[in-house]
Design brief:
The protein is built from 4 helices and no strands. By secondary structure, the protein is mainly α. It has 2 domains: about 60 residues; about 55 residues, no CATH class. The mean pLDDT is about 80.
């Protein structure tokens, strides 16, 4: 019965991430459509607009590396947590579940200090 609950929880979390991502993309498309409509109303060709949205959608080159590190830390924490719940007894059997946020936090710190950041272009200074 425990494995069924875990599978339902994982499926629910995956479904939530999927729906939330689709909602965010729809909101971005709605904002862009509104911007293009306003530009057309003012007589400006929307293709000539330089939008910051295009740079944001290009993504982070190290994004897959970061996501992989976080997913590996989560998986490792879940395996160690299940192992700890079978090996430890009493109140300490629940201690393994604290490994999930702990290892995710360590993964984020590892990413922060080791993965190079993308340099943002600087604006030219006015004289």
């Amino acid at each position: 019965m425990e494995i069924v609950g875990l599978l339902v929880l994982m499926f629910g979390a995956g479904l939530f991430v999927l729906v939330y991502g689709m909602w965010l993309k729809a909101k971005r498309l709605e904002r862009r459509t509104t911007l293009y409509e306003r530009a057309l109303d003012k007589g400006v060709d929307p293709r000539t607009l330089k939008l910051d949205l295009d740079e944001q959608e290009a993504g982070d080159p190290a994004g897959n590396l970061k996501a992989g590190i976080i997913l590996l830390a989560t998986a490792l924490a879940m395996v160690l947590g299940m192992w700890a719940s079978t090996v430890l007894s009493g109140a300490y059997s629940r201690l393994g579940f604290a490994l999930v946020p702990a290892l995710i936090g360590l993964a984020l710190l590892f990413i922060h200090y080791t993965v190079p950041r993308r340099n943002k272009p600087t604006k030219p200074q006015e004289e």
